[in-house]
Amino acid sequence: MNNQHSVSCEDVEMYLLGGLDEEDKLAFEAHLLGCKECRLKLEELSEVVGIMPLTAQPVQPLSGMKARILAAVAEADQAKVEAMSNTEASLQSQPTPAVPVIDSASAQITDKKKTKSWTTPAFAAAAAALMIVSAALYQKVDHLNNESDKLAVQVQELQQQLAAAEQPPNGIQVNSVVALTPAIPDIVAQGLATIVIDAKGMHLIVQAENLPKLTNDEAFQVWLLKEGKPVNAGTFLTNDGTGALYYTFAPDQYDQIAITHEPDANGSQPRGEIVLAGKLISG
Amino acid sequence: MGESASDELLIQKIAERDSAALEQLYDRYERQVYSFVFRIVKDTMAAEEVVQELFIRVWNSAGRLRTDESAGKISSWMFTIARNLSVDWLRKQGRKPSEVREQGALEREAAPQSTEQEVEHKLLGEQMKEALGELNEDQKQVVELIYFMGYTQQEVSQNHDIPLGTVKSRVRLALSQLRKKFESTWKEGVKP
Asked: What's the pLDDT score for residue B24?
């Protein structure tokens, strides 16, 4: 198995099917630039591989998926725009929208293969073939942006929630961010708990969506747990299954956060079942 | 914008930040992409997350796609991203794709296909199923393990004790046979 990472024209099919590991994939993409035959073959076969997804058994998505996804796209976009204008310097790795992926991708690869020289028609053909592989290349280009995108979304959320405060926050520092996951099978709720620190103390921001419906006086209650002992962090109601809560508390080492479904908003100890929970690890 | 706007036109509009075009592309592909992703990740929430990430990428990278030379390739492009994201998810979970819990497969039968394109894709999907069914067992196995379960050729070779060269040749033969099958279909005028 010493020869695992050498690629050749014989790997077109494996590349297209997605069976090459990262190293082989990069090597093959470099090979592709200099091999017209492979580019042609790739183009021919990609049509066939492009049909394979259509063999999947039709499955109905969860209701409301469209609204959630389109909202997420809008939010990610907004966060991106804000992050770009606010922290231009830190986002220099962001791909420029106007530049075709192909150009940046081929530029990357040609750096590695400086000895290759090709004519303009060859470049055009390579560019056309690379359209097919742009998804894979884009993923790589995009990989570095994921972290900054996520961070930008968090920053935006914090900004929105803190905008209501009387004094504009200064020097906010995120201490920890915890994804809250369902504690009961078959529910689709999800949430995010963020702890931020400023001069006034520690603040907990909880957001949750797709929560089960509340009836009568029912409410959701947030608990911070320290060695299994719950501390009431407040209650909230929902709007279309979405709810949020803001709580300021004295610094302490809590190890867990949980959201319970309570019969009313007046409990001092948890009575209902846990809907969402997550482990807190302070940063 | 009419029902008939091509994928390429929608991508161009998306590149101009036209959210109605994104919605139209979403409607067109929601079920196909979701079903495909679900086939790989076998988890309802994960499938939604992957589809969400896919459309965020479509939105952010439409401007960098060359639609002039790529007629008919938009769906392939989207499926490729969807597959890569799905396989990434499987790997991040740290569980081998084959160990995915089957009980998570909350398969809800989808409503019958409606649009012309959906019907056409369903037909193509059925033809592909038939073509895959005509492959020999060895070829079927490698296609399933690699394409639908996300294993690399080295993993298939090691886990199933098949020489790497044999894995490669099975994939080559499988795709060559599928292509032959579809070439004759396309000559009859059906093309994705």
From this structure: 94
In a domain, A103, yes or no: yes
Q: Which helix (H) or strand (E) holds B188?
A: none
- Residues A13-49 pLDDT 10s: 999 999 999 999 999 998 988 899 999 999 889 989 9
- Residue range B125-141: mean pLDDT, rounded: 94
Q: Which of residues A139, A165, A191 is at a domain's end?
A: A165
What is the arithmetic mean of pLDDT over B120-145? Answer: 93
Tell me, yes or no, whether A128 and A69 share the same domain: yes
- Would you call A77 an interface residue with chain B, using a CB distance cutoff of 8 Å? yes
Q: Is B103 helix (H, G, I), strand (E, B) or coil?
A: helix
Determine, yes or no, domain membership for A112: yes
| Residue A127 placed within a domain | yes
| Intra-chain end-to-end CA distance of chain B, in Å | 22
Contact A46 B76 (CB under 8 A): yes
Confidence (pLDDT) at A48: 92
Nearest Cα residue to A69 out of B117, B25, B77, B7: B25
- The predicted pLDDT at position A112 comes to 38
Number of independent structural domains in chain A? 2
Residues whose CB falls within 8 Å of the CB of residue A69, separated by 6 or more in sequence, listed in order = B26, B48, B51, B52, B55
> Does residue A212 belong to any structural domain of this protein?
yes
- pLDDT category at A254 given cuts 50, 70, 90 is confident
**Per-residue exposure over B7-23, b if at least 16 CB sit within 10 Å of its own CB, e if not:** bbbbbbbbbeeeeebbb
List the single residue in A21, A65, A74 with the smallest CB-CB distance to B48.
Answer: A65
What percentage of chain A has pLDDT greater than the value 90?
18
Q: Are A187 and A156 part of one and the same domain? A: no
The alpha carbon of residue B36 is apart from the nearest alpha carbon of chain A, in Å, by 5
- Mean pLDDT over A249-271 rounds to 82
For residues A44 and A175, state if they share a domain. Answer: yes
Whether A175 and A43 share a structural domain: yes
Residue A251 belongs to a domain with what CATH number? Answer: 2.60.40
Give the range of the structural domain holding residue A244, as residue numbers without chain letter: 9-51+171-279
Kindly calculate the radius of gyration of chain B based on its CA atoms and give it in whole angstroms: 18
Of A135, A165, A195, at which residue does a domain stop? Answer: A165
With a CB cutoff of 8 Å and minimum separation 6, the contacts of B9 are B21
The single residue listed with the structure tokens 């099958």 is B181
Q: Which of residues 64-103 of B touch A (CB under 8 A)?
A: 64-66, 69-70, 72-73, 75-77, 79-85, 87
Residue in B39, B60, B129, B82 with CA at minimum distance from that of residue A146: B60
